[in-house]
Amino acid sequence: MHVLITGGCGFVGSCLAKFFLSQNKDRTSSLGKSKTSNSYRVTLVDNLMRSGSQTNQAPLESLGAEVLVGDLRDRAWVETLPKCDWVIDCAANPSVLAGLEDLSPNQSSSQLLVDHNLGGTVHLLEYCKKHSAGMVLVSSSRVYSIEQLCKIPFDLHDAKLSIDWDTVEASKTIAGVSRRGINENFSIEPPLSLYGATKLASEWLAKEYSKAFGFRLWINRCGILAGAGQFGKADQGIITYWMHRYLYGHRLAFIGLHGTGAQVRDCMHPEDLARFIELQIHSRPSDKPTTVNVSGGMNSAFSLMELHRWCEERWGKKPSGKGSSGTGPNLERVEQPRPYDAPWIVLDSELAQKTWGWIPQRNRSLIWQEIAEHAEENPQWLQISGGLG
Q1: H or E element at residue 178
Q2: pTM of the model as a whole
Q3: 172 pLDDT exceeds 90?
Q4: Structurally, what CATH architecture does the domain formed by 1-144+192-222 represent?
Q5: Coil, strand, or helix at residue 268?
């Protein structure tokens, strides 16, 4: 099977590529006979614009991947891509703050965001139409309504938000939320963020193309994907960003929610996403939902303060910088919220788990341990990944 992964030199794309390439190894029984296994040809597409992504190219090629450097916004270039069986689309500007500030008076960052995230998807859908290739669209929890998320009643306990379930269950006015988290029936009404809107528009276009032209489609809405080697920045890859900056004494800040660090997210390792995608591409879609949440869920949920305290336990409390709160390495508390802040996003993956019999294998503890070890072994990682800004 030929799999083409866009954004293939990024963190998620490269993790998926390594997983599929690893499946090509012969599995030998105790009798010395080769067992049958899925065999994959892996082609990666990337424009190498993300800081750090260029470091993944040679290692992936050494594992057997073909890496094609080009831009999905270029329709003519996309038309030259080799025919494949499945496109796994991981290419996007994943920052929820993307598009808000223009790069120059003559360059609209919002237009660039739409061109990257939506325009590139359109070209890939045309490619799937031409080659009858299936598509797996890696989407985002950010397709869910910020306004409705902010209406959920919360309690604050020890710098971590938790839903006031008694109020939620008594009111029966908030659809799509349960004690397992946000499910696929939660509101997708704007505002979502410009990023979230491009992902939701990509989902809808993909469904239309799939129905009109008869190719297979899976849409996976993911929360935070995290693991060693992620390119951490303040607006993406937050776990990696926080750990590396904490360990090496760089400024950190709790922003919004009165500077409490109480906002909550879930996390999942991309290898668990890869296992799920493999189940999807070898199954028939007739009796299965097209769109599902794929995440770590409540078992992996954490607040930013919990992450900070975990760093303190592992590496000890760092000296505080001038003007800081005295609770960490140059740690500041900024009460002013940022655009598109959401207090609590934990996805309910029950539909995916029941349909495919899939559960994440790496819990939060294992993911954080992996990232911490990578941070200790790679003191220059923030310089490589652009996380020192």
Answers
A1: strand 177-178
A2: 0.93
A3: no
A4: 3-Layer(aba) Sandwich (3.40)
A5: strand
